[in-house]
Amino acid sequence: MELTVRKNPISHLIDRILPVQKDEKASPHPFLVVSYFTEDNEYVDHASKLRASLEKWRVPYSLTPIKTSGVWEYDCSQKARFMRDAWENSTVPIVWLDADATVEAYPALFAEIDADFAIHKWQGWEFCSGTTYFGKSPIARKLLDQWVLRCEADPIAWDQINLQSAWCDIAATEALKTYWLPRPYLQIFDAPEESPPVIKHWQASRRPKNDGRSSPQPQLALTERGIQLRTSHVPWRRSEEAFWIAQGTAHIKPEAGTEFPEGFDIAEVLREAINGEWPLLEIGCGVGRIASLFSPTEYIGVDINPNAILQARRLLPHHNFRLYDDGYAYPQAPTALFYTVLLHVSDQALPFLLEEALKGKHRIIISEIMDTRWRREGNPPVFNRNPEDYILLMQQLGFQLTFVNKTPYERYDREPLNVGRDSRLTTLAFVAVDS
């Protein structure tokens, strides 16, 4: 769904820039407040209150009316691109305020921040994008770009979830200077106050959406470990995750969802391994190649790579693809599939990844070329294992082997690649013992 913007959000169309009175101290670092509001629902009234409060405190602002897409989450996901457009067209740092916020006192802190990015963490861990600051720096632009990418890859995820993951992406590899805003700059109207609020948020999103415009798809659930990871101000990105996120789809082989170099009917093998336990959750779904073998009702795909998820959604717009990040529970499904994924996971990280993936699952399928002689260092490295390695590990995790298929993988079953190495695609299916 596309969001219709009635007019260019910035491009010299700032609604009103109020001069600072002579008896007031001029801002050492000017800033601009930007926001949009849907003009065909209750947010119009909220935006008028925000406008009045900005004018009361003589804060430069631009408020832009838009038409709703019909899905609240899609409307919110457009915030990232709107902010990037505003940032590109502004000569000063920009501050986003949700349309259902009001300014209760002059926000002097925005004129003093020396950082690429500023946000408040609610309860010490949750990004609250209702008040967000972006400085005019190259790293701020990188963060905006990554936020846009993640929101377009998974527009059902709340924009603040995508922003927090984007922050981790950039902070893990760049010297991203972050300022953590105090509570008065994101004061929820019915929450305890630590001190008098500067910006108050009235949480219109809590109210029932009687027109049914909220998506029926659930948000991914954050685990206790996920909360702990996000409580720290340190990025939680593992090196192998950072590699695949940063590289986009450059190392995904084959590149397209319509290419099947296996040389045999892999769909038939997988359906036999699934044994009727639908839907299938593919962990590490890439660009949607395997997803194309199944109907939308049979399949859910997740991946840590936003470029891959974006390409998969474009290839199969009716399938359910979600962007995953460390610290979230995987979507519920009876069967999980790892298709040529675990060979990219280090031996140290493998047990934990499997343990997290197995929760709530009855059947696990692992399909890849299994022979340690294929292992190699490099960029990226590969960690091929023997079937016995997976069988032993899955037994330790409470799963028993119930299905085996070994079929030559045409792309690799040729000299000199197959000399002295098993070039067959091995598919193993395991079932929970206690079931």
From TrEMBL:
CDD domains: AdoMet_MTases. InterPro entries: Nucleotide-diphossugar_trans (IPR029044), SAM-dependent_MTases_sf (IPR029063). Gene3D superfamilies: Vaccinia Virus protein VP39 (3.40.50.150). SUPFAM superfamilies: Nucleotide-diphospho-sugar transferases, S-adenosyl-L-methionine-dependent methyltransferases. This is Methyltransferase domain-containing protein.
